[in-house]
């Protein structure tokens, strides 16, 4: 199994980075995982800004040569892991900019004239590891689970990815946040995951 880990946080001293390290450690200790590729969007200085004009058209985004490196990473991955904080009830703008460009028509999905498109990323799975300051149940009760709905239904299922797992940790700026327990939970999952 090939794993692509996409890390989105500007600070390598952050709790998100600690979760990222547990993903890498667990994956490295898993005999089912043959390749781990890392994309640190901030370190990469990925440009999240969409530009469309007379020279750059949205319909051609799936063949934009500047994005081929990232398309190749997605194509080769069996499992895509996103590690990021929840800010204002959603992933960081940097990650959303990556998603806007990478999950493009004719790469991630293809219109076929019906209500739903044909997902072109079938067979892949996704894991989202996210943390937030607010209570764990805040997104569910206050935001109608907007984060998970956005990621699972509006994005991944639309592109044909049916297997999506979430680690959505709340109270992470509290001393009672059980950080070590949650970090170990992520490590153990990646150490044992088979697909």
Strand order of the largest sheet: 2-1-3-6-7
Helix/strand order, N-terminal first:
EHEHHEHEEEHHEH
How many individual helices?
7
Return Rg in Å: 17 Å
How many strands, which pairing sense, and closed or not: the largest β-sheet? 5 strands, parallel
State the low-pLDDT regions, or none. none
Which geometry do the CA atoms define?
Answer: globular
Q: What is the percent of helical residues?
A: 25-40%
Helix/strand-derived category reads: alpha/beta
Q: Beta fraction of the residues?
A: 15-25%
How far from one another are the termini? 7 Å
- Overall pLDDT, averaged? 90
Instruction: Say how many strands there are.
Output: 7
Describe this structure in words.
It is globular and about 50 Å long. The strands form 2 sheets. Strands 2-1-3-6-7 form a 5-stranded parallel β-sheet, sandwiched between helices. The protein has helices spanning 15-28, 41-44, 68-76, 93-102, 138-142, 146-156, 179-192, and strands at 2-7, 35-40, 79-85, 109-110, 118-119, 125-131, 163-169. Helix 1 packs parallel to helix 7. Strand 4 (109-110) and strand 5 form a beta hairpin. It is of the alpha/beta class and 195 residues long.
Which SSEs are present, and which pair or pack?
Layout lengths: L1 E6 L7 H14 L6 E6 H4 L23 H9 L2 E7 L7 H10 L6 E2 L7 E2 L5 E7 L6 H5 L3 H11 L6 E7 L9 H14 L3
Parallel strand pairs: 1-2, 1-3, 3-6, 6-7
Antiparallel strand pairs: 4-5
Helix pairs in contact: 1-7
